[in-house]
Amino acid sequence: MTAPLQPLLSPRSIAVIGASDNIHKIGGRPIHYMKTHGYAGTLYPVNPQRDTIQGLRAYPTLDALPDVPELAIIIVAGEAAVQAVHDCARLGVAAAS
Description:
By secondary structure, the protein is an alpha/beta fold. It is built from 3 helices and 6 strands.
């Protein structure tokens, strides 16, 4: 049985929706920090305008990911954020922030 907070506190995979190549922007910081501090899980940058982000393959949408991530970090504004939450729920993402 999985502990209820495991997907938030120790996820095996993370999608960063609104990921950026620029580590000084809010969309670039999570990936940079996780890579810098040794996150051992799988990172999925999601950005429809990029093929790679910070050396990782980028995906245009959550639906394009090869697996359902345990955690999604949502870094988009307004209606795009609402849609991202709906997409996470539809796909079965365990946690989102």
